[in-house]
Design goal:
Elements lengths: L12 E3 L7 H13 L10 E9 L4 E5 L12 H12 L6 E10 L11 H14 L5 E4 L5 E4 L2 H4 L13
Parallel strand pairs: 4-5
Antiparallel strand pairs: 1-6, 2-3, 2-4, 5-6
Length: 165
């Protein structure tokens, strides 16, 4: 028997057009879309791109990378974040992130991060002690704007859940 019934609301904005984004958001949005052209997706044919906007104005991209030995591929969100950390230690904070997806040669569609990517994105947000605003294309063809990755995944696993050493 439940003691308390509760609801969790997810905070986000839904925008109709890329022109509704700020100039920095538009650049990040476009970079994610352009990154899809470099995805390695010969098995699914689903090309995903991610773009990270850093506080110094740098845009860093990632793409999904598939492998015949499923599930050893990696999603675009994680290649962007891991690639950034590996190639630019001490990088400027991430101040924006966007994800885009399309079937090979097709039109752009929804791109909602998997659970593993959401967890990794949360970790990077925690590491920098600063929110990472996120832009995602919805199933309805709109743009979902989250002020923070935590808004996308309010119940998450964090370092606070681990035992102390």
């Amino acid at each position: 028997m439940a003691r308390n019934s509760r609801q969790q609301l997810i905070a986000y904005e839904e925008l109709d057009f890329p022109t509704d984004l700020t100039a920095d958001e538009q650049a990040t949005w476009q970079a994610a879309r352009e990154a899809t052209a470099h995805a390695y997706a010969p098995y699914s044919g689903f090309q995903v791109g991610a773009a990270l906007l850093l506080a110094d104005g740098t845009v860093f991209r990632g793409t999904n990378q598939e492998n015949a030995a499923y599930p050893s591929g990696l999603c675009a969100e994680r290649t962007a974040l891991f690639g950034l950390a590996a190639s630019r230690p001490g990088h400027a904070p991430i101040v924006g992130m966007a994800v885009a997806a399309r079937p090979a040669g097709g039109e752009y569609g929804p791109a909602l991060p998997c659970g593993a990517c959401r967890q990794v994105m949360l970790e990077y947000e925690a590491r920098q002690s600063r929110a990472i605003p996120l832009l995602l294309p919805s199933r309805a063809g709109t743009i979902l704007r989250f002020a923070s990755v935590t808004d996308l995944m309010p119940f998450n696993f964090s370092p606070d859940d681990l035992p102390t050493l």
